[in-house]
Design a protein that fits this description.
It is built from 5 helices and no strands. The chain is mainly alpha-helical. The protein is elongated, with a radius of gyration of 18 Å. The protein binds fe (ii) ion. The site of fe (ii) ion has 6 residues, from helix 4 and helix 5.
Length: about 140
C-alpha cells in the first residue's frame, strides 16, 4: 500500500489533493487486483483516469505558469509521456478479450505507476515547492531592537 507523505508535497493544496487521490486510486487498484483479479482491477483503474489525469496535469501546469516555475517545458514533456503510456495501456486493454492473460498489461501498468510515483511525483512535482506561493500565514514581524 502506498502512503502519501509530506515529503511528496508540492506546496500547492489543489495539486497535493489531486496527488493524494491518485495514490488512493492506486491502492484501490491493488485491493481490487487481490480480490477480483486483473481484468476487473485494470478496468477499474483505467475508467475515467485519462480524463482525470489530463485535468490534473492541466491544473498543475497552470500553477507552474502562475509562479514562473523554470522547468515548465521539461515538466510538460514528462506529463505528455505519462499520458501517452496511459493511452497505450488503455488501447491495449480495450482491444483485449476479457478472458485473455493480462500479465503483460499488468507489467506495463506496474511500470507506469512506479515511474509516475517514484520519478515524476517524488522527483519532478516536488520541485514546485520552491516556487509555489506559500499557503501558510506569513512570518510574524521581527521585533525591533
Ligand atoms: Fe507533474
Amino acid at each position: 500500500m502506498l502512503v502519501w507523505r509530506e515529503a511528496m508535497s508540492t506546496g500547492h493544496p489543489e495539486v497535493d489533493k489531486a496527488q493524494k487521490r491518485f495514490i488512493a486510486h492506486i491502492n484501490e487498484f491493488e485491493t481490487t487486483l487481490r480480490n477480483a483479479g486483473a481484468d476487473a482491477a485494470i478496468g477499474m483503474f483505467l475508467t475515467g483516469l485519462y480524463e482525470q489525469v489530463s485535468i490534473n496535469f492541466g491544473r498543475e501546469e497552470k500553477v507552474q505558469r502562475e509562479c514562473a516555475f523554470p522547468f515548465q517545458d521539461a515538466h510538460h514533456r514528462e506529463h505528455a509521456a505519462l499520458l501517452g503510456r496511459l493511452a497505450d495501456i488503455q488501447n491495449l486493454y480495450q482491444a483485449m478479450p476479457h478472458k485473455a492473460d493480462h500479465g503483460v498489461l499488468l507489467r506495463d501498468l506496474a511500470a507506469l505507476i512506479k515511474d509516475w510515483v517514484s520519478h515524476h511525483m517524488v522527483q519532478s512535482d516536488v520541485m514546485l515547492r520552491r516556487y509555489a506561493p506559500h499557503q501558510t500565514a506569513p512570518h510574524p514581524a521581527r521585533a525591533r531592537p
